[in-house]
Structure formats: C-alpha cells, structure tokens
Amino acid sequence: MLKKILVANRGEIACRIFMTAKKMGIDTVAVYSDADRDSLHVQMADEAVYIGSSPSSESYLIVDKIIQACRDTGADAVHPGYGFLSENGEFRDALDKAGIVFIGPGKTAIESMGDKITSKLIAEKAGVNCIPGYTDVVRDADHAVQISADIGYPVMLKASAGGGGKGMRVAVNEQECRDGFQRATNEAQASFGDSRIFIEKYIQQPRHIEIQIMADGHGNVIYLGERECSIQRRHQKIIEEAPSPFLDAATRQKMGEQSCALARAVDYQSAGTVEFIADSDMNFYFLEMNTRLQVEHPVTELVTGQDLVEMMIRVAAGEKLSLTQDQVTLTGWAMESRVYAEDPLRDFMPSTGRLVRYSEPSCNGEPKIVRVDSGVYEGGEVSMFYDPMIAKLITYGDNRNQAIERMVEALDHYYIRGVSHNISFLNALMMHPRFVEGRLSTNFISDEFPDGFNADLVVQNDPDLALVVTAAAHQLHEERASIVSNQLAGHEHIAAVDWVVVTGAQKTPVVVELIESGYLVSINRADNSRDYRIETDWSLGEPLFKARVNGKSICVQIETIATTASGYRLYYRGAEINAAVLSPRAAALSAHMLHKPPMDMSKFLLSPMPGLLAKLGVEVGQEVKEGEELAVVEAMKMENSLRASQDGTVAKISASEGDSLAVDEVILEFT
Question: How many CB atoms are closer than 10 A to CB 644?
Fold first, then answer.
C-alpha cells in the first residue's frame, strides 16, 4: 500500500482526497500558492509545500515544482484531483520517470482520450455510438463555415483539448459560426495551450448522461451506474444526480458496456467517466471520456456505497478491484448542487472576496443524508485566480422526490455572506415543476429562464409564509426595543398587535399575538384570512429563522436592511423577499412618500465582474450600433463579450487593454 500521497490540487477536492487517505492510514501532503497559504486543504494535510505565486500557471501547473515537493516530503504517490494536471500526459510521464506513483490512468489513455478528435476515432472503432461531425482539425473561420454548412446547423464548435465548458460554442448560422470559432479558439488557447477546434452536429434538447467506470491493472473493468448532468449553464454542470430519471435498465446496460469497451481499447486503469448525450428517443452518442475523478463523483458514491477515491488508491497500489460487475448495486437517489461564488442577478458573474459569514447545513448525525464537500471556512477568501466553486452540496433519499426535498431544506440552511452566491438559483431549480417531473435537457436553464434569473419571481407554494415570519421577527425586535427603553417594564407579555407587512406594492395587514411557544400570526384579508402558529426559539441576530409553522419545519434566512426602517430581507426556497413591517398608520402614510429614481447608467459600459480587459474594440468618437462588441473581459479563463445595448457614440474611454477591472468599474462612456 502507498505510504504518503501528495495531492496536486487545492480546495474541496484536495480536502476530499485527504479524508479518504487519512481513513486508510496514509500520510498526506498539500501544495499551495500565495493565494492558498491559509486554505483549508493546507490545514488538513500532514505536511504542506509552497509551490509559487497565485496564478495557476506559476504554481499548480508547474510539473517540476510538484515533483520536487514529492522529493522533499518523501511522497511516493500523487493524486491529481480534477483540473490542473489531472489529464496531462507529460505530468504522468514525468512522475513515472521520477519513480512516483500517479493515482490515475496511463499516459496513452490520458492523451488519446484527452484529444477529442482522437478519442472519437477510437470510440468509433470500439463500437461506441458517436455524434455525426468533422473529426479533423478546423483550419480557420472559413473552413468552419464550410464544414458547418455540410453538417447542417445547429453545430457545436469544441476545443479538441477542452473540458469544463471552455472552448465551446453553439452556432445556428454562419455569423455565429465565425464568431464562435474565434471565441472558442481563444478560450482553448488560454485554458489548455491548444487552440485546435473540431465541429459536430448539435443535438437539440439533449440530456447529458455519463457512466462512471473503474478499471484495475489486472484486466478488470466495471461500470458503477450513471449520472445525469443535464442542468447546465454555458456548458458547465450545475446539478447532477444518480441515477438518471430518464434511462431504463436496458439503455443503462448498453451505455455501461460501451463505456467499458472504450476503457479496454485504451488499456484504462483507475476511475474514469464516459460522457454521452441522449435524445428524446433514448438514442445516445459519445461525447468524451474524462480520465480523472469527476466533480460529481459523490452522487455515485452515495447510491453505490463505494468510495471512488479509495478504489483509485488501491488500483494505483496494484490491487485488483474488490467487486465484480454483478456485485454493483444502485440503491436510493442522490442529488448534487454546485455552490458557486457568482451573482445570478448579474448574469452569473464570478464574485470574489472574504467569506464574512459561512455556515454549512448540518447532516444531523447522518452524513449520507446531507454531505458537503467544501474547501472553505468562515473568514477565508474566494480568490480571483481559481474556479469560483465554494462547495458541493449532496443529499440522499430513498427516491428522487425525497432527495430533492432534502436538497431544498439543505439549501435553506446554507448560509453564506461576504460574496455573492447561487443558492437561491439552485433552490429555484429544485423547486421548478419541470425539474421535479424529471423533464430535463441541457437547454433547461435557457428555456425556463430566458431573460435571466430573478429571485423575486420564484413561485412559492405558500407566498404568505415569508410575510408571517417577517411579522414574527419584527414583533420580537419591537419587544426587545420596548424592554430596553423601559416602556413595558413588568408588562413584557403583550396582547395582539396590528402590523402591515409591505412587499413591493403589496400591503398585507396582520395581527401578531404572543403564545406560549412563539407567535400566532393572523393574515387579515377580505378574501383570504388565515392563522399561522409559529413555534420557535429564534433569537435576535440569528441568521436562520428555524421554526415549526402550523406543524411543518421551516428554515428562513433573515436579515435586517440597514438602509430601511423596519426593513428585512428573507431568503426561502429560491425566493429573495424584501419586506418592511409598519404600523397601520405608517403604512397608510407611506403611499405619499416620494421615491428617488435610480441613476441612469445606460450611458456607461461597466465591467460586470472582476477581471482582465483582454480587448477594447472601439475608440473615442466612434459610432457603435446596438449589439456591436465593445470589449472583452477575461475572468476565470473565460472570455466575456460586452456589447452595446443601444446605438451611440463613444465619448470617453476610462480603461486600457490589460487593465485589471473591479466589478462595476467604468470602461467607457457614451454621449
């Protein structure tokens, strides 16, 4: 067995690998950059080695530094996690020459499957279903247009060395093809150092389904069921689940057997994932093979009961697989949500900064029911240098509905402040009727949120629940204020009090009455009156309002709004509600209050995220048309094209190419 494992990665995946290594009694080594000096993965490891500056190109991607760290610490093996060097054949080769075990597949498998053109040719030869397309390198934009016309639009332009949604564009006409080719080429070069692009037919309304395989060095290959990863944004997975609500047993077997055939064709060893897309008739086509551990591996672990990291370590140590194909079982249902530091209300732009408050949902002593794979802690920072994923939240249930309900509850309890995050969006997806029904496709988000996400529009099963929670919380604030000011000394138990809860233009009269275990809140509408019995021991200042409302357990995130008197912001099941609690008199007078209109920013082009101004395509005095590209901002190695929202003339340019931009920093101004 291996004695000491160095994890050539960071964040949650490094922490995840350390947990299994420690369980197996194996010593661990972390590597870290300047930005990660105080990171959780550094704290978890038995030893830690500094490897360079914050940019990954100066630290985590330098092979010689990783090998030197192994030599300095005596590590006899390296686990690459995912990303960085995990699918780098030269890294595998360098480790072999240094006599260090690589916990992953061989160089031939990495390089052949890492090249999407080569992998498709091998898959076809192995009898794996493949998508129609052009499997040679596309020379230039004109060549891309010619190929696309032959295949027939829509087409997908993809980086040959790509992954993670980078270097991918869908084109439905010639102009989009030309533009997409340039964007995909630039992203491919920036992310992988390989600008080659290929083109294939784009399957409309596809489902993304992948097979987890495991192979040892003794000729044994098995598949451990499938994962459905159809909920994606910009080709990046957001929600994954196992099993798929779509597949039947026969199709699962065909996909699994073809995946194993592909693994055998490249003498595969270790964990790997073969990705497919499936159409509405359950025809499936090979996309790619990822020769590493996947981000979404926890859902497979929960439904199979297997520790994939442990299996990888044992295979790398020369052991045989501990189970055969007929011993693989799928029990229950698992759901995973990727929690990102990004702002869904600003087109999901990345967010960086300190985690001022951070609290993960509890598993209540049952780690299989709620699992959080994270690499952060309260007070830590989300860096601009790496992927903005904060954590993976995984829930398990006896069936899909139970796994979804537990996910919704866990998201309600997940408390993050200091950076923007996507928890409300994740909960809105979980609550969406189409998602609950399992009618999924990779176009789900663009179909259901065509104008972007707005948490205020999320439909609630009981919209009044947030109102009564706000009223109860406000009543407790008022009681405390009265006691402190000695207005109710000796008379703390109050009679019923009338309030009006204001949300937008809606004004809802309520009566709040103190009861033994909390409050009785009555909504008084002419057409709909209802009582809510709120049993809670919530205290002022607690961010999570946990209670039983009419016998049902709830958790609402609540905070006061400093700029608004009697104002509160609530987060519950995907909705974000701003509310104020006023006396009936104040509510009546509020109708006469003047509201300051927001400042007109239509004459400015602002950076929507922290990033690098990679391109500035206009100059002072230039006339631009609506939709014309003005600038390109690069963040997390993704190019974001900023276009004119209306016709105008450039009056002033405030930034230059190569500048580092803050969020909302002015790039240019129009007349």
Answer: 17
